[in-house]
Design goal:
- The protein is an alpha/beta fold.
- The protein has six domains: 6-174, 3-Layer(aba) Sandwich (Rossmann fold), CATH 3.40.50.300; 180-240, Helicase, Ruva Protein, domain 3, CATH 1.10.8; 245-338, Zinc Finger, Delta Prime, domain 3; 341-369; 381-497, DnaA, N-terminal domain (GMP Synthetase, Chain A, domain 3); 507-553, no CATH class.
- 55% of the residues lie in helices and 9% in strands.
- The chain contains 25 helices and ten strands.
- The strands form three sheets. It has a five-stranded parallel beta sheet with strand order 2-3-4-1-5, covered by helices on one side. A three-stranded mixed beta sheet has the order 8-9-10. It has a two-stranded parallel sheet with strand order 6-7.
- Strand 2 (90-94), helix 5 (101-111) and strand 3 (121-126) form a beta-alpha-beta unit.
- Helix 9 (200-210) runs parallel beside helix 11 (233-240).
- 28% of the residues are buried.
């Protein structure tokens, strides 16, 4: 007779043989006994937790000659064929190999046929999450309204990959990992049935490395049984390639006791012996964790840092070409952390660290702004804070118009040359609350659209907000969007805050925004010819001329002098 693997030989054949899934077993037993049988079930959970085994037991309970029953006889023809995997009424499908729409269409065509000498036709689809979207869509109608003689049982380790339309049409059962105690008890049963000598500690070590999977536990158990006549801790250690517990204990003491060289020597020995260093690191983490939980460890902060460092090391070792080097670096970091200073020196060191952090933060701010001197010029030298108006929008409008050339220069100093180029084509025409209205000529649409982008608008607003002493925002418009054009600031409303002599002199000498052709146009319209010398401008005339140049104004008439 051909040899059968232990996980197949000792697969549960009835609900009474299933361990660790009591809630699921009880629910399915009650469903069979009360004839409340769903048309579709979904079994989810990690690998090796009994999903396929329970599906087969459920199929037995449905098609047993005495069924539907929660205690299939296991002797009738249908029970026997299901156990052997040859039943014509229980079809097991591998979702990873039969995942296309054509496979589902074939399934749909077979669903309509009634079972042979049985009550139900059961479809067990393993790894159902591997089906394509088209296959799920083709299965959806059949799953929603299947024939009365069909039961679907889906099994998967990744339920989140199933479409919501499928999840809403099935009864879901979540299989949890087996506890170490449940695995040990099952292995004891198998050892008794196979007439093998085992040590209890060896079974516990197998259960620990199985990580809650019964199939993995049986696989390790089978290898150990082939390795030695008696399954001992040493046999399990050799089969798994893990480090002995003595080395785990010694290594843990060395890294906590700042014995760096001794810890590195243990790593070198394990590497030369061909041990799995990742498993070794996990064993050390487990020991540190158990020590913290039991309260036996003395330096808990260091142990927590060691666990954190080793956990990161385990992740890095998966992709490292030489895991030994990664683990050695972790030892150096942990033991370096252990080194401490006297309390007085530590206090001074902490003060220096805090001072250094503040200095770094200040330097980062200066780097972000560009230059400390530039920042100081923008914030203080260029615009005195005492001149910032706050009474009304008209005064703020006049203030924005006055500082606009300095603001553009400030943008250049802040290395915002693009923002400066875009805003040069616009003119501030009004301040409404915290909004600066900027008017652009119709043929400067590109500049308007560019400054409206967040990447240009936000830094430009930040610089102007610094000058204004409050947060402001830009609102860009075209000059011809209204019938009257951009709203101008009335000269009489800003007379209380007359331009300074420096401002008048700047405008007279050639303000950056004053263009020669515009100035000639203003002079002609005002009745001033090139042959006629200019009289000394009053404050109102200077402001009027600047306003016309800025806003594109035009003199309709000028009152004659007496």
């Amino acid at each position: 007779m051909a040899y059968v693997s232990l996980y197949r030989k000792w697969r549960p054949q009835g609900f009474g043989d299933v361990v660790g899934q009591d809630t699921i077993v009880k629910t399915l037993e009650n469903s069979l006994n009360t004839r409340r049988i769903s048309h579709a079930y979904l079994f989810t959970g990690p690998r090796g937790t009994g999903k396929t085994s329970v599906a087969r037991i459920l199929a037995k309970g449905l098609n047993c000659q005495s069924g539907p029953t929660a205690t299939p006889c296991g002797k009738c023809g249908e029970c026997h064929t299901i156990k052997e995997g040859t039943s014509l009424n229980v079809i097991e499908i591998d979702g990873a190999s039969n995942r296309g729409i054509d496979d589902v269409r074939e399934l749909r065509s077979q669903v309509q046929f009634t079972p042979i000498n049985a009550a139900y036709k059961v479809y067990i689809i393993d790894e159902v999450h591997m089906l394509t979207t088209e296959a799920f869509n083709a299965l959806l109608k059949t799953l929603e309204e299947p024939p009365a003689h069909v039961v679907f049982i889906f099994a998967t380790t990744d339920p989140h990959r199933l479409p919501p339309t499928i999840l809403s049409r099935v009864q879901r059962f979540d299989f949890g990992r087996f506890s170490e105690q449940a695995v040990v008890e099952r292995l004891q049963t198998v050892a008794k049935g196979e007439e093998l000598e085992v040590d209890l500690e060896a079974l516990r070590l197998i259960a620990q490395h199985a990580a809650g999977g019964m199939r993995d536990a049986l696989g390790i158990f089978e290898k150990c049984a082939s390795f030695a006549k008696k399954i001992t801790v040493d046999a399990v250690v050799e089969v798994l390639g893990i480090a002995p517990q003595e080395q785990v204990d010694s290594f843990t003491e060395h890294i906590l006791g700042d014995s760096k060289l001794e810890a590195l020597q243990i790593i070198d020995d394990l590497h030369n012996q061909g041990r799995d260093l990742s498993q070794f690191a996990l064993a050390v983490i487990a020991k540190l964790r158990n020590g913290i939980l039991s309260g036996a460890n003395k330096d808990e902060p260091l142990e927590l840092r060691a666990i954190e460092q080793l956990s990161e090391t385990v992740r890095e070792m998966r992709f490292a070409s030489d895991p030994r080097i990664v683990l050695e670096l972790a030892v150096v970091k942990i033991t370096t952390t252990k080194t401490s200073l006297p309390s007085a020196d530590m206090g001074r060191l902490e003060d220096k660290v805090r001072t250094l952090e503040k200095e770094i933060s200040r330097m980062q701010m200066l780097l972000a702004k560009g230059n400390e001197s530039v920042s100081e010029r923008v914030s203080s030298t260029q615009i005195p804070k005492k001149r910032i108006p706050s009474a009304n929008d008209a005064e703020r409008s006049a203030y924005v118009l006055e500082i606009w050339p300095d603001y553009l220069k400030g943008l250049r100093d802040e290395r915002l040359m693009q923002c400066e180029a875009f805003l040069k084509e616009g003119t501030p025409v009004e301040v409404v609350d915290d909004n600066i209205v900027i008017a652009f000529p119709r043929d400067r649409g590109f500049h308007k659209a560019s400054i409206e982008q967040d990447s240009h608008r936000e830094p430009a607003e930040r610089v102007l907000s610094k000058l204004m002493g409050k947060q402001v925002r830009f609102r860009c418009v075209f000059q011809d969007e209204t019938a009257s054009g951009p709203k101008q600031v009335a000269p009489q409303r800003v007379q209380p805050d007359k331009p300074s002599q420096a401002s008048k002199r700047k405008r007279q000498e050639g303000h950056p925004t004053v263009k020669p052709d515009v100035e000639r146009k203003v002079n002609l319209e005002a009745g001033i010819t090139s042959e006629q010398p200019k009289a000394q401008d009053s404050d109102a005339e200077a402001f009027l001329r600047a306003s016309m140049e800025t806003f594109g104004g035009k003199i309709i008439s000028k009152p004659k002098e007496n």
